[in-house]
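Renewal narrative, Specific Aim 1. Our central claim is that a sequence can be written position by position from structural information alone. The example that follows is taken directly from our test logs and has not been curated for this report. It begins with the structure tokens describing the chain, in the order in which they were read.
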């Protein structure tokens, strides 16, 4: 029977997350956890050069030994990246007893959560999952979407955040605000950004009674407007 997982994004900032294992898979898991500002501890007799460097820089804690029962004390989440089936079962059992989120890599039946294939574009995160039955399919879908949702979406989401704030501060009814938000969401803004049609985008934004946030664009394209004015 296939588990039906509940999709969720976790706030791991400053939370203790333990990774058991020190190979390339563990390395990827650690890097993702650090991106989420988690407090990371690695338990493994040996680790990759990158993990060793992170430990030397004080970015992670490394306990140079094998896992033993009790290691999950105070952990908020644990990832087991080890090929030892017996150790995997022991880790999952302890995690279940202590009600700690646990992921045993590539063993869905020993997981209380699974890690989706993700696309990150600044504030935008898209997660893809096949409930653990085919990571290869999830990866293929991710690669397809990465071609469609390019780097222009980093700026796009930042822009929409600013415009939404402006709209919510307007002296309009809730219906009118929602209408403006939907109109902008349906506009081809990502395409304007991709092809740098900033003047056209400026007209679109100002037509809605909003201020074009030049500083956001300057952050991504330094001096872009001053160069255009020189033409």
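The sequence written for that structure reads:
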């Amino acid at each position: 029977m296939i588990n039906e997982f509940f999709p969720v994004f976790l706030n791991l900032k400053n939370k203790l997350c333990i990774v058991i294992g020190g190979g390339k898979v563990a390395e990827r898991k650690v890097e993702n956890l650090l991106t989420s500002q988690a407090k990371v501890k690695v338990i493994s007799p040996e680790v990759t050069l990158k993990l060793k460097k992170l430990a030397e820089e004080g970015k992670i804690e490394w306990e140079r030994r094998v896992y033993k029962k009790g290691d999950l004390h105070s952990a908020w989440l644990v990832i087991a990246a080890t090929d030892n089936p017996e150790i995997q079962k022991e880790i999952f059992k302890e995690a279940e007893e202590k009600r700690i989120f646990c992921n045993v890599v590539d063993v869905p039946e020993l997981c209380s959560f699974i890690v989706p294939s993700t696309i990150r574009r600044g504030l935008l995160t898209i997660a893809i999952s096949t409930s653990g039955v085919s990571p290869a399919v999830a990866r293929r879908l991710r690669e397809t979407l990465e071609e469609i949702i390019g780097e222009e979406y980093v700026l796009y989401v930042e822009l929409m955040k600013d415009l939404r704030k402006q709209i919510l501060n307007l002296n309009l009814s809730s219906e009118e605000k929602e209408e403006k938000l939907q109109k902008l969401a349906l506009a081809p803004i990502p395409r304007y950004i991709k092809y740098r049609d900033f003047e056209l985008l400026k007209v679109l934004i100002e037509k809605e009674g909003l201020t074009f946030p030049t500083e956001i664009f300057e952050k991504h394209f330094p001096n872009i407007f001053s160069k255009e004015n020189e033409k």
